Amino acid sequence: MDPNLTNFFDDHWRKSLEDHESASILPQLETFGPYFNGKKGRVLDLGSGRGQHALWFARHGWHADAFDLSSVAVEHLQKVATFWKRFYPEGSVEARVADVGVTDLTRQYDAITLFNLSHYFSVEKWRELVDRCRDHTVSGGVHLLHIHLDSECASVIRQIHNVYPPMFFREEEICGQYRDWEVLESRLENDLAPTPVGPQPHRLLWLVVRKP
Q1: Which pLDDT tens digit goes with each residue over 182-198?
Q2: Could you tell me where the DSSP H helices lie in 92-185?
């Protein structure tokens, strides 16, 4: 693990958890929930952070494996998951500290979430990660991705994130790895990224794909 990146995320989550004590469910999961509601299986939440995605799945009876680089985030998720277990006994969350870029996957999954991860990987490392996830997804399994796309302000964003300058991909680079999967939904969104010269337009991709 890169100690600089580990410290960066530990500091990030320590501050975030001080500002937001609870792990609220992100509205995006309610939006994409119909692809998963009514089903029960095992989901892998990569870069799980404080666990909104893993907890959402557990609430709906899934068993979630949650991997994150930050021990601060993982310890928080473990505590919250234990508390929630009494209300949603059919689901579960197994959280552990792991470098998702190199961690071996030992299970087959019915769903995998890759939220806000791609910009921490080189093109080669991202392709390796996606290929590994594809190999460990059952037939009919679903991937849910949230990707920061390349944009005109990308170089400025890299300058302000000097600890670990992000890498941004083009839409076709992301979708190309899933050209043999069924696209259930592909949605582009515009966002405003903070920069030294003020908020700048930045594009995001939501992608839901299913393995044949």
Answers
A1: 999 999 988 776 666 67
A2: 123-135, 154-160, 171-176
